[in-house]
Amino acid sequence: MSNIAGRVREVFRGDQRVDADALIARLDAVRRFLTAVDGLLPDGDLVPAHTLVERAGTRLALSRDHTVVALAGATGSGKSSLFNALARLELSPVGVRRPTTGVTHACVWGPLEGANHLLDWIGVLPRHRFVRESALDADDETALHGLILLDLPDFDSVQRSHRLEVDRLLGLVDQVVWVVDPQKYADRVIHDSYLREFHRHRDVTVVVLNQADRLSPAEVPRVLDDLRRLLDTDGLTGVPLLATTAVDPAGMVGLRDTMERTVAERQAALRRLAGDVDTVVADLDQLVGSARPAGGPDDTAVNGLNRALAGAAGVPAVTEAVERAYRHRAGAATGWPVVRGWRRLRPDPLRRLHLPGPPGDQSDPAESLVAATSVPDPTAAQRSALGLAIRAVADRAAADLPAAWPGAVTSAARSRLGDLPDALDRTIAGTDLGLDRRPVWWRAVGGVQWLVTIAAVVGLGWLVLGYALRVLGLPALDNPMVGAVPLPTALLLGGLLAGLLVAALTRPVVRWAARRARARAEQRLTARVAQVGDEYVLTPVRIVLGSYAQARDALRDAARR
Questions:
Q1: Residue 504: strand, helix, or coil
Q2: Closest Cα to residue 63, out of 269, 276, 264, 272?
Q3: If 0-12 CB within 10 Å is exposed, 13-18 middle and 19+ buried, where does residue 406 land?
Q4: What number of H helices and E strands is found in the chain?
Q5: Which of 77, 104, 396, 497 has a C-alpha 20 to 30 A away from that of 419?
Q6: DSSP 214
Q7: What is the model's pLDDT at position 296?
């Protein structure tokens, strides 16, 4: 879709016919473009496209059997005289006082009833509508049946309301006949403000040099050649250029023949709308261009976003708590039974963050219903890092897009920023941190600790019993010997030493396993946080990029003929 505007400027249909179905397909493509960019681009840039869709639909629905031709010109150009000469009736007032035409007059060739709805839409008052139908004409006017000729107010009128009316009607009529006179045919107002703006409507534009009778026969060709040069400069190469005079019927033959041909073709309305589509497409091209957007931001930007989200969500604090909680729970499960109760009195690190406590812990059942955690709020630096990461995602995603779109991509990336804190908190609270089950080796080590503790208790009780018997003067029990050491003493000391040894051997294993638990929790939390980032940041960005692709394709279809 390279340089649509350039291609549109080269189009001049001339005698080429405009297919109505193809035109409707182009209008539908413009409608699809507007749907795709709704809410993404400034409304002011889309007003012409919305106006085109509305006007085209109405114009095609009203009547294809009528052709609306407007006579437009400056004060004193003789529009009204030309209007009356074409109608062969005195319908529009003519006089020396300027401006004479203050309201639009319409002359309809054929029954007025069929044209009323179209004239209502155009805005011509009923009292200014005339019918060119007379039994005295016989078949003289048959060739113009279906023509609606408008005499517009002067576009250079000192009354602003007249100029506004002209501008409004020029956007509605099917064909425009620009009327210039020998004195002001080179006036900058008509060329800069009007003719040059109609360069994409060359196929529905006719220019007449009126009042040619004021020139000598030798001057007429020179003036026409100079006017043709000006029209070529305006981009109106190839438009019909005629010399007319309202005072001589012979001076109207060329214009009347042009009108008859236009009415017979029934193409003016379609060509006008096709030119409107060309104009709108050319103006919209700068909003879309030819860039093919990526499917989303690159991996570098996404990874940066995930890191920033993890920091804002408090993942480092949670993973540190996971490591401490693992050591805490492992110590309670594998430590010396005598001190396990003391460990349980200390709060679990995860419970301090309102995260799941040890399995089977029902100390606060209501807490399971709490959606929020007590993870520390992000710092100012973390919030700033998140904002920069979101901006980087938008910048990378919109790097190749036209100037109108990066703002829409950035807005989409930030559209759910206010919902992120709660979403991240819910995600942290709902993530399985991998501490729900007690490892089997905890049970094994805990069982060993219970065995050595029981052995120590048995040895201690045996020694206490023997000491009590001796104090009471009762016969003492013979203690079995383990080498040179009595069995009760061996049980007591062996149990104590074995418990300390198991604890010493278990401690580095617990630290290593706690680090693994932290890494596992970090991996899970990062993955869940990345899902939040995808839903709340990346998905809106992809939607905008998808809308851009749809708009680009729709505009490409609208440019086809």
A1: helix
A2: 269
A3: middle
A4: 19, 9
A5: 396
A6: G
A7: 72
- As a whole number of angstroms, the distance between CA 251 and CA 82 comes to 10
Long-range contacts of residues 264-267, Cβ cutoff 8 Å, at least 24 apart: 264/143, 265/17, 266/64, 266/65, 266/67, 266/146, 267/17, 267/18
- Which SS3 state, helix, strand or coil, does residue 438 take? coil
User: Could you tell me how far CA 433 lies from the centroid of its own chain?
Assistant: 38
| 307 contacts: CB under 8 Å, gap ≥ 6 | 389
Tokens 């009203």 correspond to what residue? Answer: 62
DSSP state of 191: I
Buried b (16+ CB within 10 A) or exposed e, 236-265: beebebbbbbbeeeebbebbbebbeebbee
Cβ(209)–Cβ(243) below 8 Å: yes
Place of tokens 């000391």: 493
How confident is the model at residue 100, as a pLDDT? 52
Across the beta sheet with 105-108, the strand order is 129-131, 105-108, 147-151, 67-73, 175-180, 205-209, 241-243
C-alpha–C-alpha distance, residues 379 and 119, integer Å:
67
The verdict on whether omega for the bond into residue 99 sits within 30 degrees of 0, i.e. cis, is: yes
Phi, psi of 129, rounded to the nearest 5 degrees: -105, 135
Residue-wise pLDDT tens digits, 227-277: 999 999 999 999 999 999 988 888 899 999 999 999 999 999 999 999 999
DSSP string, 469-501: HHHTTPPPPPPPEETTEEHHHHHHHHHHHHHHH
| SS3 at position 149 | strand
E strand or H helix at 104:
none
pTM comes to: 0.78
Structure tokens at 348: 């679990």
- Please, are residues 49 and 28 in contact by the beta-carbon 8 Å criterion? no
pLDDT at 371: 46
Q: Residue 138 carries which DSSP code?
A: T
Spell out the long-range contacts of 385-389 with Cβ–Cβ below 8 A and sequence spacing 24 or more: 385/308, 385/311, 385/312, 386/308, 386/309, 386/311, 386/312, 386/420, 388/308, 389/301, 389/304, 389/305, 389/307, 389/308, 389/309
End-to-end CA distance of the chain: 13
Q: At what angle do helices 380-397 and 406-414 cross, to 10 degrees?
A: 140
The 3 state secondary structure assigned to 355-422 is CCCCCCCCCCHHHHHCCCCCCCCCCHHHHHHHHHHHHHHHHHHCCCCCCCCHHHHHHHHHCCHHHHHH
Residue 59 near residue 169, CB atoms below 8 Å: no
Q: Which long-range contacts (CB under 8 A, 24 or more apart) does 434-438 make?
A: 434/322, 434/517, 434/520, 434/521, 434/524, 435/322, 435/325, 435/326, 435/329, 435/350, 435/356, 435/358, 435/359, 435/517, 435/521, 436/356, 436/359, 437/359, 438/329, 438/333, 438/359
CA-to-CA distance for 82 and 149, rounded, in angstroms?
11
What DSSP assignment string belongs to 5-40? HHHHHT---TTPPPPHHHHHHHHHHHHHHHHHHTTT
* Sign (positive or negative) of CA dihedral 218, 222, 224, 227: negative
